[in-house]
Write a structure and sequence with these properties.
By secondary structure, the protein is an alpha/beta fold. It is built from three helices and 16 strands. The protein folds into two domains: about 90 residues, ACT domain (Alpha-Beta Plaits, 2-Layer Sandwich); about 120 residues, 3 Solenoid (Pectate Lyase C-like), CATH 2.160.20.70.
Length: about 240
């Protein structure tokens, strides 16, 4: 009599960290929402497909105000996946959950204190010890390049609607038309270097500028960006 061996189908469990973007409202909320609208207008599509954590640790809101704020963000198509810095008494099943300790261990990126990515390339696609990422091809509109642990070097251009996000510095040898965000893990020493500067947005450690904020004589020029005394500085490269 032939005995069949038991077949055990393994259940695959993969550990992976994720990039979370954090919004930190300031009082008065109405004024903060006006600033947020102006910021989104200058960088349209920024929040598409991005998980947003709402950090309310710097404000004290009653439950009706909290519900109204979530509704205002929803009207703006800003997807709040979790909240932080709030009393549990404010929460109910119809509202975003409180950020857990596991969520908090994910990489947190502070979005513009002012309070379309269909493809994402990350350093997690490479060996775990990789601390830099070199992109040889142009970054197309809709692409998102992420390296949370180090620098990113782009040999081509970054198209409008594309973004590059690095824990360290960003080096762009082509034209920057999209968004470049460096120092996202809290590295205020990070810099952005670009051969042809005409971005939708540049940011270092949560401090940002758009092309409208930049001096007009820098557009189309080789530029470096850095932080100094909590202000974002732009200067033409020699």
């Amino acid at each position: 009599m032939k005995v069949l061996a038991d077949i055990c189908t393994p259940f695959r469990l993969v550990g992976r960290s994720h990039v979370l973007f954090v919004l930190t409202p300031q009082l008065p909320i109405a004024f903060w929402l006006t600033e947020l609208d102006a910021w989104v207008q200058r960088s349209q599509g920024f929040f598409e497909g991005k998980p947003i954590v709402l950090d309310l640790s710097q404000v004290s809101l009653a439950k009706p105000e909290f519900i109204a704020l979530i509704a205002e963000l929803k009207k703006r198509n800003i997807p709040v996946v979790a909240v932080d810095g709030v009393d549990t008494s404010l929460l109910d099943p119809d509202l975003p959950p409180l950020m857990s300790s596991n969520t908090r261990s994910s990489e947190m990126i502070k979005v513009a204190d002012a309070s379309h990515a269909d493809t994402q390339v990350t350093a997690e696609d490479h060996p775990s010890k990789v601390t830099s990422l070199v992109i040889e091809n142009p970054v197309r509109s809709g692409q998102s390049i992420v390296c949370k642990n180090g620098d990113i070097t782009v040999l081509g251009s970054i198209a409008s609607g594309a973004e590059v996000i690095a824990g360290g510095s960003i080096h762009i040898y082509g034209t920057l038309l999209g968004r470049a965000m460096a120092g996202v893990a809290g590295n205020a020493q990070a810099r952005i270097f670009c051969r042809n500067f005409n971005p939708e947005l540049v940011a270092i450690d949560g401090t940002y500028a758009t092309v409208e904020d930049a001096p007009s004589h820098l557009c189309g020029r080789p530029v470096q960006a850095w932080l100094e005394q909590d202000s974002l500085h732009l200067r033409e490269l020699d």
